[in-house]
Amino acid sequence: MAEKIIINDVGPRDGLQNQAVILEPQQRVALIHTLIAAGVKHIEVGSFVSPAAVPAMSGTADVIAALPKGDFHFSALIPNLKGYELAKASGIDTVSLVIAASNTMNEKNIRMSNSQVMSFAKDVLGRSHPDELTTLACIATAWECPFEGLIPENTVIDLCAELLAAGAPEVVLADTIGAASPGQVRSLMTKLVSEFGAHRLSCHFHDTRAMGVANVYAAVECGIRKFDSSIGGLGGCPFAPGASGNVATEDVVLMLNQMGFDTGIDLGKLITAADLVAEQTRTNTSANSAKWIKRQIEKGLL
Fold this sequence. Notes:
It contains twelve helices and ten strands. The chain is an alpha/beta fold. The chain has one domain: Aldolase class I (TIM Barrel), CATH 3.20.20. The strands form two sheets. It has an eight-stranded parallel β-barrel, surrounded by eight helices. Helix 4 links the parallel strand 3 (about 75) and strand 4. Helix 7 (about 155-165) packs parallel to helix 8 (about 180-195), helix 8 (about 180-195) packs parallel to helix 9 and helix 10 packs antiparallel against helix 11.
């Protein structure tokens, strides 16, 4: 049997948060349903941030209330304790929190210093177990910060150790501005896998320099078996200059399928979701592989 790799589509949150066209909750639910129809079972469905700061995420609780029941893994981002309480009240099973590897990024992103964010993270991790919530921890700017430049590997390793020791079941390493190269990914992930084990780590890459898929490949070679990606390659952090779209789900799934891994995702149906979000957001953004995949569909090969 083929080895499984989990794809967590962050399009309904990370992909939409920086778009000019703001989607209503029912439109976001429709997008989630098309992702589910394609076989995507792990989806980041929204975030509990201030609507004034990120208008695109208004109504996340309404989105969660409309989600189907079943063997799905839905998550929502939380920036602070108020967000945590709102997420808990919504009934979501999994929340994710972000701590940047650089102090400046934390201050720009959520108006906290490194020490304040870590205190918040430990507080949430302590609360989530009795609250029966899963809390994933994401280290943003794990390779490079738009304000402070290259991040020392030891800084990321130490942060990862602290988060795992505080009870995080999984740490996501995020290349927030898409600045990492495959060599840099291999270097850091090799050390992290050796220290903590691949099963406790996942990766989140952006395609700013057209190296998103190559970076996924490098992480796969290090043993990582879970990745964030975004339908249609949409995305970008509003608070990180230069952060363009996430690596496209279609590109990642195509590569992994051709490498012999099992993602459980139907490429033909994934294109339906990509076309829908392009129509919804009125963008021309598409995966690098989209034209090729559509040609295979026309030929009856997918």
